[in-house]
């Protein structure tokens, strides 16, 4: 695209997909770690075509130790990146659709985290050791200055 000076929204989407791959893999487009001067797009596509490769294997090693929920977000973002780098420009999503997809990933994650937090909070609350309203003890449930402790009657005198 750059040589032909034919820059379109779809070429911007492709570039954005490459940037997403850079962020997720920790590599540059023509990183020295890539075999034989291969481009990151070709490397990712080649790796994913192998049956033994899991999407997580594409991620930067420093990201692989993060919580599962974040790994899930990154693999979904990898899916968005793959849509962006489609070799057929007409099949690439519009940038507004890319934005919507990434926001959905974020919202799903936030909803999931909120639900998990609620469950953890609920489960972490210790059950009461005893319920005073059903206690068989002779201790009064409510202590009031109006109650005269010795007479057994209310202190309205």
UniProtKB/TrEMBL annotation:
Start and end residues of each Protein kinase domain: 1-107
Pfam families: PK_Tyr_Ser-Thr
Coiled coil regions, renumbered to chain: none
InterPro entries membership: Kinase-like_dom_sf (IPR011009), LRR_receptor-like_kinase (IPR051564), Prot_kinase_dom (IPR000719), Ser-Thr/Tyr_kinase_cat_dom (IPR001245)
Name assigned to this protein: Protein kinase domain-containing protein
Database matches in Gene3D superfamilies: Transferase(Phosphotransferase) domain 1
GO terms for MF: ATP binding; protein kinase activity
Annotated Gene Ontology cellular component terms: membrane
Lineage top rank: taxon: Eukaryota
